[in-house]
Predict the structure of Haloacid dehalogenase-like hydrolase.
Amino acid sequence: MFDVIAFDADDTLWHNESIFTMTQVKFREMLSSHGPEVVDQTLSSTQIKNLRHFGYGIKGFILSMIETSIELTDGDISGSEIQQVLDFGREMLVAPIELLPHVREVVEELSQSYSLWLITKGDLIDQETKIARSGLADNFSNVEIVSNKTAGTYAKILTQHKVDPLRFMMIGNSMRSDIVPVVQIGGHAVHIPYTTTWEHEQDHPHVDSDHYSDLDHIGLLPKLIREKG
């Protein structure tokens, strides 16, 4: 039934949001005199404002932390504190890649019968590095690193590779990025929630649950695909 099965990367195949969460805790501590809620709210609004300039990923997050620091301190942030933020970012960029449970065996199993793609958004160099370090790269016949995931993005990729949306399945943790736009172009989608999701990714148009599947974890995916096939 499917010519291509595609996976999101961050928080679908390996942990990612937890690294941002841990860094945000350190950032709150650095600006503790302003209160955690104020720091979180200011950082969140700054990130969303900056998405169209810096895109998704760690580098944009670092720049938004620096901007938030400047805003909350009225420009009185010290050079050593900015260096501290940069160090937070470097730690994020070299953090070990920790695969989610069942990922390796599921990806390796499905790669024996299907053409697997990886479709992820974020910074090009960071995502390429994570894919290489994951140990999964050889299982994917195509890797697409995009600035954003919209219905137009998916339609363009499928058109370029002459893949019918009806024979395409996307697996991911984000309704906004991995599920809704694929359903909108007539493809199949499987939502596998991560333990935490960035608030921005939770804001999405409604789609009927009949048009996608929900799974508790990726280990259940091969059975679902067999049933649909």
Summary: The longest helix spans residues 36-54. The chain has a mean pLDDT of 92. The chain is about 50% helix and 10% strand.
